[in-house]
Design goal:
The protein is mostly helical. It has a single domain, classed as MFS general substrate transporter like domains (Growth Hormone, Chain: A), CATH 1.20.1250.20. Helix content is 74%, strand content 3%. The protein contains 19 helices and two strands. The chain has a two-stranded antiparallel ribbon. Strand 1 and strand 2 form a beta hairpin. Helix 5 runs antiparallel to helix 6, helix 8 runs antiparallel to helix 9 and helix 9 crosses helix 17. The chain starts with a helix and ends with a helix.
Length: 433
């Protein structure tokens, strides 16, 4: 038994052997789900992170302080986190396609509003509207888990999660549109793709059944039953870890372009291009992690991934410094300042590990909580969205209070340590039981 295996919580279900029986070929319904759902995820995620890419123009146009801009970044994340669990429960009742379609159409007027707004409160309200539309992420998760290929559900969930590369789509396209036609046209760039994907979902996708096929229960009864289920600690075990990785990714994706501009003096377009690899490797890691989790019970992988990400955060937390050592032959001066390529390498390695963790964790949630997948998946996205909303103000306030640009990485390091302590406490509690 390896050291990692000894940390596996015995309170979880036993390891499952891979299924050996032949499986039917991928059907039309599953193929539509696997193709259209990640595309919708990517567009919603790109809209969700819109303010980060337009940060320089917004701060210049509205004369925003760093804290005011951080609050603006946090608004869509806060609303998206609060909308995730209700959207997941609504998707179970009405069908994931219907809820995704409604969320995509809901986003469109707020994109138009961002392109025409003039005052800070208008942008805050528009950001809240975009965040409510991000409930499509939870609805899409229900759609994929319900109608995706049964044998390769991990791969399907990984492909869906890889829609996080939508942040990279914004990094690549919006600066070009902003420079060519002005930044106010950039939000309108998403209107046609969002409407097009909504039309494709309406034409080609379907749901597992009609609302009439679901058990008849009063909404108050369903809500009370869900709240009672949330008192069960086993529903939180994997959701907390997933929430950290999801929230940390979203927070870093929002913060990265501005950090590269401030730390290395890059122009907006150059900073966007240097920030592109991070969401890409996270998306690749999710696909690989989900596919491998179909074949293996990667229950101990969360420990290895957490330890590796912790080491990367420790290195990224070091600010530039100069140290003088008085030796036998005189003073020896040492200077440290991470070069751009070194910063990118650490972010890429950490992003790949985070993607592996996200993909394998969502497959574990589906395996451990098949009947409660909607509840636990919505809970995981809720925790991730709320944690992501906390990060922009914390990054700014941490830098102001400590005077260090790396204070955000220090906070993430401390949060991951706390998350691992919760994992360890869960293991000890299961061992005693």
């Amino acid at each position: 038994m390896t050291p990692a295996d000894s940390l596996v919580s015995p309170s979880g279900p036993p390891e499952e052997a891979p299924l050996a029986e032949p499986t039917p070929p991928l059907g039309y319904r599953a193929l539509v789900v696997v193709v259209l759902s990640p595309l919708a995820f990517a567009l919603v995620f790109a809209c969700w992170t819109l303010f980060a890419v337009l940060g320089l123009e917004l701060r210049r146009e509205l004369a925003l302080s760093p804290l005011a801009f951080a609050i603006l970044l946090a608004m869509p994340l806060l609303a998206g986190g609060l909308a995730s669990l209700p959207a997941a429960l609504l998707a179970r009742r009405l069908g994931g396609r219907r809820v995704m379609l409604g969320c995509l159409l809901w986003i469109c007027p707020f994109l138009w509003w961002i392109g025409h707004a003039d005052h800070y409160p208008e942008y805050l309200l528009a950001g809240l509207g975009l965040g409510v539309g991000a409930g499509a992420l939870a609805a899409g998760l229900v759609h994929v888990a319900t109608l995706g290929p049964a044998r390769h559900v991990g791969l399907a969930l990984g492909l869906y999660g890889a829609g996080m590369v939508g942040a990279g789509l914004g990094y690549l396209l919006l600066p070009l549109v902003s420079q060519a036609y002005g930044w106010r046209l950039a939000p309108l760039l998403y209107l046609l793709p969002v409407a097009l994907v909504a039309g494709l979902l309406w034409l080609f996708a379907d749901d597992a059944g009609t609302p009439a096929e679901a058990p008849r229960r009063r909404p108050s009864g369903r809500l009370a039953a869900g709240l009672r289920r949330l008192r069960d600690w086993t529903l939180w075990r994997l959701a907390i870890t997933y929430g950290f990785f999801f929230g940390a990714f979203v927070g870093l994706a929002l913060w990265l372009p501005g950090e590269l501009t401030a730390r290395y003096g890059l122009a907006q377009q150059a900073a966007a291009l240097w920030g592109l690899p991070f969401p890409l490797v996270v998306g690749i890691g999710q696909v690989v992690g989900g596919a491998l989790a179909d074949r293996h019970d990667f229950r101990s992988l969360r420990w290895w991934v957490s330890a590796f990400v912790l080491a990367c955060l420790f290195l990224l937390s070091y600010p530039p410094f100069t140290m003088q050592i008085h030796g036998v032959h005189g003073a020896l001066a040492l200077h440290y300042d991470a070069p751009l390529w070194g910063f990118e390498l650490l972010m890429g390695l950490m992003g790949l590990a985070m993607g592996l963790g996200l993909g394998s964790l969502m497959r574990l949630i589906h395996r451990d909580h098949g009947e409660d997948m909607v509840l636990v998946g919505g809970l995981a996205l809720t925790l991730g969205g709320l944690f992501a909303a906390l990060l922009p103000p914390v990054f700014v306030l941490g830098s102001l209070w400590t005077g260090l640009d790396t204070a955000g990485f220090m906070f993430l390091y401390a949060a991951l340590v706390l998350c691992m302590l919760v994992m360890l406490a869960d293991h000890v509690r299961g061992a005693r039981r």
